[in-house]
Every structure is written in C-alpha cells, then in structure tokens.
Amino acid sequence: MSEATARAHPNIAFIKYWGNSNQDLRLPANSSLSMNLAGLQSETKVRFDSELSEDQFILNDQNQSGEALKRLVTFLDIVRAKASLDDRATVASHNNFPAGAGIASSASAFAALALAGSKAAGLDLDEKALSLLARRGSGSASRSIPPGFVEFHAAEKDEDSFSISIAPPDHWALIDCIAVVSEEHKKTGSTGGHLLADTSPFQITRVAGADERLKQCKQALLERDFEAFAEVVELDSNLMHAVMMSSQPPLLYWQPSTLDIVQHIRQWRSEGLAACSTIDAGPNVHVICIEEDSTEVATRLEEIPGVINVLTAKPGGPAELIN
Ligand code: PMV
Predict the structure, then answer these.
(1) I need a surface site. Which of 49, 59, 135, 137 has the fewest CB within 10 A?
(2) Which atom of ligand 1 is nearest to the CA of 191?
(3) Residues 6+ away with beta carbon under 8 Å from 143
C-alpha cells in the first residue's frame, strides 16, 4: 500500500485554448497562457491498495460513479501503465471553492491527481513529465503544474505539449475578481465543447491568430503593460466565444448579466480603472485587475444586479506534495 497527497490551484487563461487536435491525447489546437489562482485549490490523496478490486473516487465527501469515475479510472490507467502497476486506488479529493462557481475545477483536480497519483505509484516525475501527464486528464490541468504565469505549448507530438512558467507569482500583482452570476452546473462542459470547435467556421481563423495574440499577451505581461494586456485578453475571450456561439449545435454560455458586467468593465477602463474581463465555458466573468484597484473593482462588481458573489485570487504557486 502506498499513498501521497498533493495540492494544486486552478488557473484562468488569458489566451484560451479551445478544441483539440487529438482528442484521446488531449493535444490542444492552439497554445495558451494563464495565471494560477492562489487561495483556491484542490487537495487530493491517492492510495494504491492491492486488496481493492476497483478504483474508488470520493469528491468533497461524496462517492462518485458514472462519468466522473470513468474519467478518473482512465487517468489512473495511464499512471498504472507508466509505473507498471496493477493495484486499484482510492482517490479522495476536496476543492475549497464551490462547485459551479465558474472556476474550472478540472485544472486543479487533474494537476493534484497527476502529482499525488504518480508519487503514490512510485514514480518521481519532474515538472515537464507532470505537466504532460496532467494534460491527459484535462488540457488546462497541464498549466496548473508550474508556478505563476504559465504558457502551454500546442504540439503535434504527445511529448512536446506541456506547460512552463514564464514568470513567477510575484512578477505582477494581478487579481482575478470572479463575478459569479450563476452556480448552476453547465450543460456542455469543456470536454464536449472541444469536440464541437471544428464545426464553427471561425475556429480556423481563431487558431491561426492564436500564436500572435499569445506573443502580444506575453510581452504585455512581461512588461506589466496593462492597457496592451487588457486589449488582447478581451479579444481572445471574444474570439473563443464567437467560435462557441457559431458551433453546431451552438454553445451560448453567457447570461444577460455576463454581458452587463463586460460592458461595465469597458466603461470603467475608459474612465481609468485598470480592469479587463475574460470568460471561460460558463456565464461567470473573470475580471482581471491590478491589486491596488481590486477592492474598488470587487465592490463595484457586487453592486451589479445578478452578481451573486465575488471571489478574489492572486497569482498562485505550483502543484505541490503535502506531507
Ligand atoms: O482543460 P479543459 O478541457 O477544461 O478546457 C479548458 C477550456 C477553457 O477553460 C474554456 C479555456 C482555457 O484555456 O482554459
């Protein structure tokens, strides 16, 4: 019997990935750029046990079955194959942020699982190998392995598509103020959504320009140029949602209050507040701002009708083992 426990943060993508070039290997259609979210985390314990006849998955104290369990077993099979191990495992995981809060829990979940699972299986993987492994569970999980601001490379080969840190968490005091407008579980998650990306006539154009946007975003981030950063982050989010909305069947994740927040942010920025918005596969809005403006931004967001609550997160560290 061997066990390990790990912790990882979710992340918010400034340059998004949407669509896979290889669905089984979860090779992303384009490279992406993100920030880990400190304070929000998944903590996961994995125990391999020769006495067990099947894998067990307990999430936030609830026994999981169906699709959630199937996805976990598929991932553990990859770990077992790497470690030449046959034992089944018990996986117990906790998120400290509410489910359906508009934060992709799959990123922190599979990053923590990759680290705890590989360690418990007797593997000693470096950051690159962990990032490659986490990607197999969820593309964005690859970005939750390294610290701070992270770039995820798209590539044709499995061994070339992984994430690296481009700047540590203390590089820039950005805050993600997450304006929660709905706590409902989304109907089409990202795994199903990626499959639809190529049905949109805009996906080719979005992917073709992604490297250039990533370059601009990276430069703005490294130079701490908020105005340039804000423009490219909002453009990239809009392009992804244009693809989603024009897929067949269409994916429309926004609620009226989503658009209301986006318009408020544009107005506030034109008045001098350093804030911009980005939206994932859900209706909640991630408002990225400079730390000194974050109390003002969060207070203003709470006053917008339809905003249920606002969560805030600073740039976060890497996935880590817990003793
Ligand atoms: O990692 P996945 O399969 O949950 O996909 C993430 C997709 C987005 O969150 C919408 C964009 C991104 O790059 O994080």
Answers:
(1) 49
(2) 3
(3) 11, 13, 32, 34, 36, 107, 131, 150, 152, 163
Last residue of a domain, one of 170, 192, 227: 170
The pLDDT assigned to 101 comes to: 60
- Compute the distance between CA of residue 240 and CA of residue 296 in angstroms, rounded to an integer: 28
CATH number of the domain residue 8 falls in? 3.30.230.10
pLDDT for 131-141, tens place per residue?
999 999 999 99
Q: How many domains does the structure of the chain reveal?
A: 2
Decide which of 147, 170, 193 is a domain's last residue: 170
- Report the CATH number that the domain containing residue 202 is assigned in CATH: 3.30.70.890
Domain residues for the domain of 48 are 2-170
- Closest residue CA from atom 12 of ligand 1: 16
34 and 139 in contact (C-beta within 8 Å)?
no
In the predicted structure, residue 215 carries a pLDDT above the cut 80: yes
**How far, rounded to the nearest angstrom, does the alpha carbon of residue 292 sit from its chain's CA centroid?**
25
**C-alpha 195 to ligand 1 mean position (Å):** 12
Give Cβ neighbours of residue 95 (< 8 Å, ≥ 6 apart): 40, 41, 42, 59, 60, 105, 108, 109
Q: Which amino acid is at 266?
A: R
Mean pLDDT in the chain? 96
**pTM for the whole thing?**
0.97
| Listed residue (25, 282, 12) closest to 134, CA to CA | 25
Average pLDDT over residues 248-266: 97
Alpha carbon distance 26, 226 (integer Å):
32
